[in-house]
Structures are given as C-alpha cells and as structure tokens.
Amino acid sequence: MYTFDYQRPASTAAAAAALQGSGDARYLAGGQSLVQAMKLRLSSSERLVDLGGVPDLKGIRVDGGNVLIGAMTTHAAVANSAEVRRALPALAELAGGIGDPMVRNMGTLGGSVANADPAACYPAAVLGLGATVHTNQRTIAGDSFFTGLFETALKPGELVTAVSFPLGARAAYVKHKQPASRFALVGVFVSQSAGGVRVAVTGAKSSVFRAKALEDALTRSFTPEAAKAVKLGTEGINSDLHGSAAYRAAMISVMASRAVAAALAR
Predict the structure, then answer these.
(1) Angle at 154 between CA 53 and CA 55, to 5 degrees
(2) What is the β-pairing status of strands 5-7 and 47-50?
(3) pLDDT tens-digit profile of 211-236?
(4) Which among 55, 144, 155, 188 is most buried, taking Cβ atoms within 10 Å?
C-alpha cells in the first residue's frame, strides 16, 4: 500500500472541506472495496477522508412515506432494523445477504452506492424501488445515478449523505450469487406499487439496469410465469468464467420469476 494522508472529520462540512486541497483525495466509508484495492496497489490516493466519525451520516428513520437511511449505516444495521423489516422487508433481506458478517458489519450503504460495483446488491434496490440519493449538494433520482462501470452522477468532491426508499411497494430481491464473494452473478429486484412495476438487474452488465421487457410483462400479469416466459437477448450481457452471456440472460428471467413469487408471498 502506498503512503497517504489520513483525516477523520467530525461533520459533513468538515469532511467536504478535508477533501479539498489534495490532487487525489477520496472519502473512506466502510473500506470494503477501496482498502482492499489499495493493499493490492490497484488504487492509490494522496488523502483518505474517513467518514466514520460523522454521526449525521448514520441512522435509519421512516419519514414522509420513505425509509431514509444514512450513508454510513452498515449493511448489518439495515438488515437488523425493526423499522426496515416492517416497512421494506425486501431491503432488509437484501442487506442481510451481502457478503459475510465482517463485510456486513463494516460495509455501508453509501459506500456501496457510490462505488457502483456492477455486481453489488444495493444498486438494484435503488433502481428497483425508485429511490433518491441525497448528497451534500443536491438530490439525485436513482434512475439517473448509475452511469456506467464504477461510474455515477456524483461530481468530484460530492458526498452521499443518505438514500431514501419510498414505501408502499410489494417487493423482493433474489440473486444467484458467486459462492466465494457472494456478489451477484445475477441479482433481480422486483417491485410493484401504485407507480407501476420496476425490475432492476445487477451482475449481468457493466452497470445495474432496469429490464423493460420484464417490466412490461409483469405489468400485464404480475406472476412468476409471466417473468419466466420473457426471453432476453445477450447484447451487453457479461460473459466470464462464472457464466456465459447466454447463461446470465436466461438467469435474469429465472431470478425475476423467483422474486415475483417471493413478493406475492408477503
């Protein structure tokens, strides 16, 4: 690991200020991706601004028809929250299936969303529920947040402070996971609400995406059979040693079918 300056501010404003004045500075959330990359010398920064000391970035509350979750709230806290389990059980179950206990107790919602790993679980919930990402500068609709491979709509120095997930959806998330990492080879988040049907897919392309063909089919008939009958093409679908593009494309419909069944069973 290369040498770097380390700062641990106590407020959001101080964190934003600490990021200035360095040519290559980064926010440090749970560190489950960034620190590992730095250890392997795949990434380097002149300064790390640790957000662990900012209390305003932590916490969960149900407010105005949304579940608002602070960016530094851990996966374990979301999974174990009675409020989340009652209001959005699909989100609690998603958080409980991320990584292993160490990852869940260190990794954070904001870190996962800002990192935008193409196989991460939280991005599927952001798109699948039509969530809103809050930063220290503005709010960003979930549909506009993820822009590509490890890329988001965040500007340099912009800090994710919270994510709000709307209530009122019947939803579920199912993933076919890579056995070692528990990242999604294919993960599908399905929701049905007054605003319509949303289907978000992670692990299958270079970025999380909504599957319109599945949304259209499930709008007509919100059943496992309708989802499973959708045949998706392989354009843009990942292909690697874990699964071909054709395999992943087929698994999207299978995972969507299982997610619909789980949502209907609630």
Answers:
(1) 15
(2) parallel
(3) 999 999 999 999 999 999 999 999 99
(4) 188
